[in-house]
């Protein structure tokens, strides 16, 4: 359904071990089962060479690697230090280059870590630069626990942009504290023009049970379109896709736009 | 005036400079945009939960609960708490206990407790109950005015003129509201010029501050910018406030836009940003035009953003969260504030 909305990138699945993330155990079936729309990319997460090889075997044409600006988060989340993870990713990125498969890099905890708290912008810049220099075409800076504000977003981006050009950056804001949209607005005003979001605001926050996680694609589109910014996406169709998945999961949408749509005007 | 050094501003006629070198203006504007927007150092947060928030609750809230909420808010550092509304109980039963509430609260020093007074009757009742600040509620939409307060915009202005004049004589400040500033549930799009016209009228009649309300929360940074740009030609920025509803999740980016110094092309230099924001503890108050949707933006979420930007408000976020917890327990419902919901989960690393 998302393939028919005009969105040009849809992160399809994750080739991570099913022992760690059982939800993504069907990664191969999903990637093989979808009907790929032309002009749409379907990146998949590949945390290591094994995952990369499985992804390619399943037909992946774009992959992503997931680093962290926080040592503690890196160790707890992927069981290794930041430097060790960079070595793993280097293998993936080099092999991907040979096969002409683009790689997207993520930096989590860019505005704060659930274990370490405040994260120095210079650390975010260091990790982002490493991933960029290794060959990632785009670095998505993630506010993993949604604690950022326009203040910390500005300072972080100012520092990162000294090492990575704005047109290679994306922001991945979580809405746990309701700050995602003002943070995105701040990033756009600084020249970033790629924004990650999730339909219906899918995904909570494992570090704040009961709280929201990803910002809703519908709410992001509503804001961007209201500002005259083109996205290529059709808001009504995204809302439909959101309705579908919420029905399937028997839960309410996290999108305020979806909730309000059709009630006013 | 931009990022021109003070010494330059003093020794040159800046406006003459801009006339002679028009490219200079654009250069300064662009540099300002790239290096970051300027924001006020202090933002006054006007707490409307006890009035605008509770007014939208279906169940009648006991007077004692209203008073306790206001008393708790009085201890948070917020400097303005809209206490109640002296409107006929026939129209708004929730506010029928207005006199008891206003008389029952313990007023903190340095805190204002404005009350809504839609007409002279309401004003007189408010003054009799001890009101020291009042508010009047106009609309930028004719249809909304007629459906909401049963008269045209012009007729409402006449009513308000009476209230404002009488208030002036008693040295009671009057705040003006303009609803439907970014859209109307009946008319749809509202011309910024109409908002400016109504805001100007209220300001010229004597309102010290005009709160521009996105009544159904449909605004975005795009429409907020255009509306404010137009209104600021008629009413100075330091007399404006924004009252954003979060029905479409746009309240915080809209507030952020309002706070940013507006770069008006004409006349130069740009005017300062808005520095007064209305919000409601726990995001009290739904949207009667979008059942099930949220209404007022949460004070907690606004404070979190402002404090995170280094903007002072005088308010203590933890105490506001406490007040929010109290009223949500009393109403047996969950908070609409994302900060309140998440708080305490990360507070060992993020105080």
UniProtKB/TrEMBL annotation, chain A:
Residues 1-239 form the Pyruvate carboxyltransferase domain. Keywords: Lyase, Metal-binding. It holds the Pfam family HMGL-like. It comes from the Eukaryota. Its EC number is 4.1.3.4. CDD domains: DRE_TIM_HMGL (cd07938). GO terms for molecular function: hydroxymethylglutaryl-CoA lyase activity; metal ion binding. Pathway: Metabolic intermediate metabolism; (S)-3-hydroxy-3-methylglutaryl-CoA degradation; acetoacetate from (S)-3-hydroxy-3-methylglutaryl-CoA: step 1/1. It catalyses: (3S)-3-hydroxy-3-methylglutaryl-CoA = acetoacetate + acetyl-CoA. GO terms for biological process: ketone body biosynthetic process; L-leucine catabolic process. SUPFAM superfamilies: Aldolase. Gene3D superfamilies: Aldolase class I. PANTHER family: 3-HYDROXY-3-METHYLGLUTARYL-COA LYASE, CYTOPLASMIC, HYDROXYMETHYLGLUTARYL-COA LYASE. Belongs to the HMG-CoA lyase family. This is hydroxymethylglutaryl-CoA lyase.
Automatic annotation (TrEMBL), chain B:
It comes from the Eukaryota. This is Uncharacterized protein.
């Amino acid at each position: 359904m998302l393939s028919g909305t005009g969105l040009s990138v849809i992160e399809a699945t994750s080739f991570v071990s099913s022992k760690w993330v059982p939800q993504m155990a069907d990664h191969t079936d999903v990637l093989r089962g979808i009907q790929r729309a032309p002009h749409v990319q379907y990146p998949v997460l590949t945390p290591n060479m094994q995952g990369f090889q499985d992804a390619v075997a399943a037909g992946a044409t774009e992959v992503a690697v997931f680093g962290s600006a926080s040592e503690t988060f890196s160790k707890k989340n992927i069981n290794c230090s930041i430097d060790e993870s960079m070595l793993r990713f280097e293998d993936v990125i080099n092999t991907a280059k040979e096969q002409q498969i683009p790689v997207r890099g993520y930096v989590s905890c860019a505005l704060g870590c659930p274990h370490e708290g405040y994260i120095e912008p210079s650390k975010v810049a260091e990790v982002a630069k490493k991933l960029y220099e290794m060959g990632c075409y785009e670095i998505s800076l993630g506010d993993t626990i949604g604690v950022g504000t326009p203040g910390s977003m500005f300072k972080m981006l100012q520092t990162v942009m000294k090492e990575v050009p704005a047109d290679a950056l994306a922001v991945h804001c979580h809405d746990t504290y309701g700050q995602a949209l003002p943070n995105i607005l701040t990033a756009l005003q600084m020249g970033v023009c790629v924004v990650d979001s999730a339909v219906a605001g899918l995904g909570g926050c494992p570090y704040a049970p009961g709280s929201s996680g990803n910002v809703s694609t519908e709410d992001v589109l509503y804001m961007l379109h209201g500002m005259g910014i083109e996205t290529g996406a059709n808001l009504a169709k995204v809302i439909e896709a959101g309705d579908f998945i919420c029905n399937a999961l028997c839960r309410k949408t996290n999108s305020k736009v979806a909730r309000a749509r059709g009630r006013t005007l | 005036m931009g990022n021109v050094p003070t010494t330059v501003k003093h020794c040159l006629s800046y406006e003459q400079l801009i006339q002679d070198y028009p490219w200079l203006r654009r250069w300064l504007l662009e540099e300002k945009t790239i290096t970051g927007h300027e924001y006020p150092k202090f933002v006054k947060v006007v707490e409307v939960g006890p009035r605008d928030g509770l007014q939208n609750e279906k169940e009648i809230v006991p007077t004692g609960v209203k008073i306790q909420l206001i008393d708790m808010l009085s201890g948070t550092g917020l400097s303005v708490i809209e206490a109640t509304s002296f409107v006929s109980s026939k129209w708004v039963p929730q506010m029928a206990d207005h006199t008891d509430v206003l008389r029952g609260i313990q007023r903190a020093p340095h805190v204002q407790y404005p009350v809504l007074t839609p007409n002279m009757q309401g004003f007189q009742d408010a003054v009799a109950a001890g009101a020291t600040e009042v508010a009047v509620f106009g609309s930028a939409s004719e249809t909304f005015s007629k459906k909401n307060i049963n008269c045209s915009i012009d007729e409402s202005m006449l009513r308000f003129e009476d209230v404002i004049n009488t208030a002036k004589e008693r040295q009671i400040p009057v705040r003006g509201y303009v609803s439907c500033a970014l859209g109307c549930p009946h008319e749809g799009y509202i011309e910024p010029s109409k908002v400016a016209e109504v805001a100007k009228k209220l300001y010229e009649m004597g309102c010290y501050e005009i709160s521009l309300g996105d009544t159904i929360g449909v605004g975005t940074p795009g429409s907020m910018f255009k509306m404010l740009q137009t209104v600021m030609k008629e009413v100075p920025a330091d007399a404006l406030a924004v009252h954003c509803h979060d029905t479409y999740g746009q309240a915080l980016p809209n507030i952020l836009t309002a706070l940013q110094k507006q770069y008006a092309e004409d006349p130069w230099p740009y005017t300062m940003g808005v520095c007064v924001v209305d919000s409601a503890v726990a995001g009290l108050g739904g949207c009667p035009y979008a059942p099930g949707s949220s209404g007022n933006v949460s004070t907690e979420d606004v404070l979190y953003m402002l404090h995170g930007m280094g903007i002072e408000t005088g308010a203590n976020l933890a105490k506001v969260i406490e007040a929010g917890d109290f009223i949500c327990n009393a109403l047996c419902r969950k908070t609409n504030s994302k900060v309140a919901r998440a708080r305490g989960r990360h507070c060992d690393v993020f105080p």
